[in-house]
Write a structure and sequence with these properties.
The complex is a heterotrimer of chains A (278), B (307) and C (459). Chain A is mainly α and 278 residues long. In chain A, 72% of the residues lie in helices and 0% in strands. Chain C is globular. The chains are: A mainly alpha (278), B mainly alpha (307), C alpha/beta (459).
Chain lengths: 278, 307, 459
């Protein structure tokens, strides 16, 4: 018992130390958001150099007053939720088909999707832009939402999850006369809530932090997302270090909240990944 | 015979119907761009003057084989992959073991390890640039405390890639940690209890119970880390712009530089295509390798029996 | 299924390729004049709408553009309507990347604001069309000669400039007077590069617990280092055709330039940072800063937060000759501007570059004007009693007597990136302490640049 107690304390101490090492950038960012200094510390002699002389909220205020930050939040939420919804429908159905429906071409498509995982976005930027332009959706929310709906990675993830769903469950439903789609939506999807939440979080974080593609396709200021806005903000003069950090902190908060709220499901959802043979 | 084929036809139809949305979006937004990219790789497509594009067949590919910078980019990418993948997986597993406890407050620790993943890359790279600074950077201050002269870090050709590797491992490990953690929580308690009765020590328990139980999840972690590492771009782009002297120039960075910055779409597409082809080959070899290992395991099992 | 897929694929592809290829060239075969003569008024049956894109600027620039375009639309009401969109500039060539992608997908605006050194690139590739048939003869006479040179490619005029920019040495007046350092007032007395080094070293000291550096220069990659230091390559950085840098960039003059820059940093006097606030603070991190004139409007906006600052000349070479880096943003008409609109677009160009517009832009955005006559008439530049005269007179003499353009090459993108990367290494990286190492680095850069330029077709 005594040994267990010591072990418990040791774990707390080690976790606290390592945790601080990992939490540092986040703490630094939030601290700097309240820093009145105009420039970042040039010499770091001790951790004291990271601490502001005093705390001020003026940086945060100027993030919301100098630019229409709330509007950008709204835009980004629109893109994030639009994408996430589509992503969940499109990829979960494909993942289900690959895992549970033994249709002709199943294996072929699966192999193809694994290989497509490697295609770097940087390689197809221009050609994707040409496609989006041909569809006439440049400078509309569709330009950022539609291209991200299909994702090899999420299909892969959903397939891994659905492999673990007992086939008997599906067969039982089908014997009861349920059609394939109603089986899927009524029987299978409710068992898969964790993986849906996992994909939700991943895609939400991804879309929230997306910069390059929206920068290329959304030219009107009305459609800017938060990342374009803060990049603009941080390169616009007069440069003010504390304000820049405040803008970064402000856009990190929603992601943080989403993660904290859904953390439990997230781990559960990932827990089912890769259990099955690939 | 005939009934099965009717049934199979029905299954085929359902399967393709479920795949339909993915096929539509996948075709329009991934396959079409890739096919176009493939076609462009045989042309001299110059982004500023698309109307003057001509077919040059294999000129781009021939030029690539003579391109020393491309060779350097491959070398850098391989160096990054070979180090990052095992180190990051090991660190992630270590963190997962650390945090795999039911005591109070562990939610905070999980969040802490996950924090770099959700923090903006801008913040992370800004901080590390500050830490790596030659004058007054944290790392050099630590080194000087133990009597080591100041290092160039990001400003040293032989160290820059390792600095980026260090940061990437730190930044990405939290993500894989969560996956490992999930795997650890799936290991049946009974196995450990049985081991306790046998008075096995912690190390034995780790190697004989924990590791084998999380083997499947490890292969998943391995694949996603590998794919991610091959595509490394952002860190070099933000922290070093490929320097010093191209020592952190990766293949994807080179694709970006040629295809986007220098507008040589034909050439950039050729690099993309070679990159993809190499990966397809590698995955074929990996399958062959896995088959080989499987055969060996079978053989060993037949010799040793059981294990 | 497969068949449908492949047909669908081909159809989409064909559509896309066809669309990408439908650019047209807006030239007529003969050289007749198509624009409006001096004093002629623009008339049209129906209103012509023009799209115009420029990078997002600072507050002063935004205001000037909004006002100017509103005034233009009012004056030309019922005849021409300009719709302006701005594009983020980022800090790493994002604006140029957008131009590329617009050109590649046939979606350029009618009128485009581009950075001066890219004119050759865009002229060669046909992104910009020549405007000499639309701008009457003599219109460009009042513009600075080197600005006209920048805006010309292969003997044809492509763009018109409103204001220009140059690099000067900013200094903190308080610190320099405390240290009893006299700053040259006359261009003939300008510091040489060696004197700059001596002064900067002398100014470097620890104040309180903080080190105060002598000189700040930008530390980031991108274009700045090549822009600011090209004049040190006294024999040029690229051959006269703008296609070969080997033998120039890594020539003897280049190696000694590299050695000088390295020794400047090694002296410990240089603080590398791209943010102007490091210099502008009242207790500055650096006492002097080599920066572009575009920072002036920022300093003015800072008001009381700003240190007491002054400006002196870009350093001279050993013989006392100054070659100040110059050249700035400029307005052109793109290939996407339909032929029926080109005259209207040229009217917009002339409106924005008129004497009145150039003067107001120069004043509002604190940038040197592109027209010679304004240096005689604007009080900031001509009246010694004007509050800004001490700053602007330095810029005036630099621009009128010592301007040097960035190299004219169709590969300016790769040139500036690679040269800046090489300079960044030579300045700050480990292992560039011998002549041979510096030469090697410059040779690597030159080889890369030449290989890339060779891949760009000359049309």
């Amino acid at each position: 018992m005594r040994r267990k107690k010591i072990l418990k304390i040791v774990f707390y101490v080690v976790n606290t130390l390592v945790g601080l090492l990992f939490l540092f950038p986040l703490l630094f960012m939030f601290l700097s958001a309240f820093n009145p200094a105009r420039t970042l510390p040039t010499q770091i002699g001790s951790f004291g150099d990271f601490l502001p002389e005093y705390l001020t909220a003026s940086n945060l205020v100027s993030v919301f007053t100098r630019i229409p930050m709330l509007k950008y939040f709204g835009n980004t939420l629109l893109y994030a939720f639009g994408t996430v919804l589509g992503v969940l429908v499109v990829n979960s159905m494909a993942g289900y088909a690959l895992a549970k429906i033994n249709f002709k071409g199943n294996r072929l498509i699966y192999n193809f999707i694994v290989i497509m995982l490697i295609i770097p976005f940087e390689g197809i930027t221009l050609t994707l832009y040409l496609v989006v332009k041909t569809l006439g959706i440049l400078d509309t929310p569709f330009a950022v939402i539609l291209p991200s709906l299909f994702s090899c990675f999420y299909i892969f993830m959903f397939r891994q999850f659905f492999l673990g769903v007992p086939t008997a469950l599906i067969e039982a439903a089908e014997i009861d006369g349920s059609g394939a789609f109603s089986t899927y939506f009524r029987i299978v999807v409710p068992t898969a809530v964790p993986v849906f939440i996992t994909v939700f979080i991943l895609e939400f974080i991804g879309k929230w932090g997306d910069y390059y593609w929206p920068m290329l396709t959304l030219t009107s200021e009305t459609w800017f997302n938060v990342q374009i806005a803060i990049k603009e903000f941080s390169t616009a003069s007069p440069y003010h270090w504390g304000t820049v950090m405040a803008s970064l902190a402000v856009v990190t908060v929603p992601v943080l909240v989403v993660f904290l709220c859904l953390q439990k499901y997230y781990i559960e959802g990932i827990a089912t990944q890769g259990i099955k043979d690939m | 015979m005939k009934t099965t084929s009717v049934r199979q036809k029905c299954i085929d139809r359902t399967g393709w119907l479920f795949m339909l949305p993915a096929i539509v979006f996948g075709t329009v937004f991934l396959i079409v761009p890739i096919v176009m990219c493939f076609l462009y790789s045989f042309s001299d497509f110059y982004m500023l003057r698309p109307e003057a594009t001509q077919t040059v067949w294999f000129d781009n590919y021939v030029a690539l084989f003579r391109d020393e910078i491309f060779g350097k980019a491959i070398g850098n990418t391989l160096l990054f992959v070979v180090i990052v993948v095992p180190v990051q997986c090991a660190l992630a597993l270590g963190l997962a073991l650390l945090v795999n406890r039911k005591d109070r407050g562990y939610g905070i620790f999980k969040l802490a390890y996950f924090a770099p993943v959700i923090t903006s890359m801008t913040v992370v790279s800004l901080l590390f640039q500050l830490f790596y600074a030659r004058d007054g950077g944290v790392f050099n201050l630590l080194l000087s405390a133990i009597g080591v002269p100041a290092q160039g870090f990001l400003q040293d050709e032989s160290q820059a890639m390792f600095c980026i590797i260090f940061m990437s491992v730190w930044q990405g490990a939290g993500y894989q940690m969560i996956i490992f953690l999930a795997g650890l929580q799936g290991v049946p308690k009974e196995l450990y209890e049985a081991a306790d009765i046998d008075a096995a020590n912690a190390w034995d328990k780790f190697t004989h119970i924990t590791l084998p139980s999380i083997a499947p999840i490890s292969s998943f972690v391995f694949v996603i880390t590998l794919v991610g590492a091959f595509k490394m771009f952002t860190q070099s782009y933000i922290m070093t712009s490929g320097g010093p002297n191209d020592s952190t120039l990766t293949v994807v960075y080179y694709i970006f530089q040629k295809g986007m910055s220098e507008q040589l779409v034909g050439y950039g597409s050729a690099i993309s295509m070679l990159f993809t082809a190499a990966f397809i080959l590698a995955s074929v070899f990996k399958n062959l390798g896995a088959k080989g290992i499987g055969a060996y395991k079978k053989y060993r099992a037949s010799v040793l029996g059981g294990y | 299924m497969k068949k449908i897929l492949s047909i669908g694929c081909t159809a989409v592809l064909a559509a896309v390729v066809a669309c990408a290829g439908c650019g047209k060239d807006g030239e007529t075969a003969d050289g007749e004049f198509l624009g409006l003569k001096k004093g002629e008024t623009f008339t049209t049956d129906q209103e012509i709408s023009l799209t115009f894109t420029r990078p997002t600027g600072n507050n002063a620039q935004e205001k000037w553009w909004t006002d100017t375009i509103a005034a233009f639309n009012e004056e030309y009401a019922g005849r021409i309507k300009v719709t302006c969109t701005t594009a983020t500039r980022g800090n790493s060539r994002e604006y140029e990347q957008k131009i590329s992608i617009w050109a590649g997908s046939d979606s350029l605006p009618d009128v485009l604001y581009v950075d001066g050194p890219f004119v050759s690139n865009y002229a060669n590739s046909g992104v910009l069309v020549p405007i000499d048939r639309y701008i009457y003869e003599g219109y460009t006479d009042d513009f600075l000669d080197y600005v006209n040179d920048q805006n010309t490619y292969n003997g044809r005029l492509y763009t018109l400039s409103i204001v220009d920019s140059t690099v000067v040495l900013f200094y903190n007046k308080t610190v320099l007077s405390e240290e009893r350092i006299a700053v040259p007032d006359e261009i003939a007395d300008a510091w040489t590069f060696d004197e700059l080094k001596t002064t900067a070293t002398g100014l470097t000291k620890t104040v309180g617990a903080k080190k105060r550096y002598g000189l700040q220069i930008a530390g980031d990659a991108g274009e700045w280092l090549s822009y600011a230091f090209t004049p040190l390559w006294t024999e040029g950085v690229v051959n006269s055709e703008g296609k070969v840098t080997t033998g120039y960039l890594n020539g003897d003059a280049g190696v000694s330039a590299g050695e000088y820059l390295r020794s400047l940093v090694k002296s410990g006097a240089v603080y590398a940072s791209a943010t102007s606030s490091d210099f502008s603070a009242k207790t500055p991190t650096a006492s002097m800063a080599l920066m572009g004139t575009q920072n002036i409007s920022e300093f003015l906006a800072l008001g009381e937060d700003m240190c007491d600052w002054g400006v002196t000349f870009y350093p001279a070479d050993d013989e006392g000759k100054i070659s100040a880096p110059c050249g700035g943003w400029t307005l052109g008409i793109t290939k996407n501007c339909a032929s029926g609109k080109t005259v209207a677009a040229s009217e917009f160009l002339k409106y924005c570059t008129s004497k009145e517009a150039s003067e107001s832009c120069a004043r509002d955005t604190a940038s040197p004007p592109s027209r010679k006559s304004l240096y005689e008439t604007m009080p900031e530049y001509s009246d010694p009693n004007n509050a800004m005269y001490s700053v602007y007179s330095v810029i005036k003499s630099q621009i009128l007597t010592s301007a040097q353009l960035r190299p004219k090459t169709v590969g300016y993108e790769v040139f500036s990136t690679e040269m800046s990367n090489a300079l960044k290494d030579i300045l700050y990286s480990t292992g560039y302490d011998t002549q041979a190492q510096i030469r090697n680095r410059l040779t690597t850069a030159a080889t890369k640049i030449d290989a890339s330029i060779a891949q760009i077709k000359i049309y």
